[in-house]
Amino acid sequence: MYVGVIHTIRDADAWAEMMRSVGTADFPPGFELLATGTSRGADRAICLWQAPSVAQLQAVLDELAGRFAVTDCFAVSEEFTQVTGQDARAATT
Hints:
The structure is a single chain. By secondary structure, the protein is of the alpha+beta class. The chain has one domain (2-78): Alpha-Beta Plaits, CATH 3.30.70. It contains 2 helices and 4 strands; from the N terminus they run E-H-E-E-H-E. The protein has helices at residues 12-21, 54-65; strands at residues 2-9, 32-38, 44-50, 69-75. It has a 4-stranded antiparallel beta sheet with strand order 2-3-1-4, with helices on one face. The radius of gyration is 13 Å and the shape is globular. The chain starts with a strand and ends in an 18-residue tail after the last strand. This is DUF3303 domain-containing protein. It comes from Geodermatophilus siccatus.
């Protein structure tokens, strides 16, 4: 399933360090980061993931960034989501 994420960043330096050091191999199987972007002021960030569930992704991100960011995860409609280079049906398989 697709999961949208909004991060409210409380510590921009810690956030930047995490973003520089974390790679796709650091995520559990079944979790794929499709897109991410951090605001210029490093006070907010957005992400789009494929994950087994909203609750599971919330737990992973709370563990990874919970000390320096508040994370809000929500289910994203597969019908209205487009990811360049990815078949829309990929989110349900």
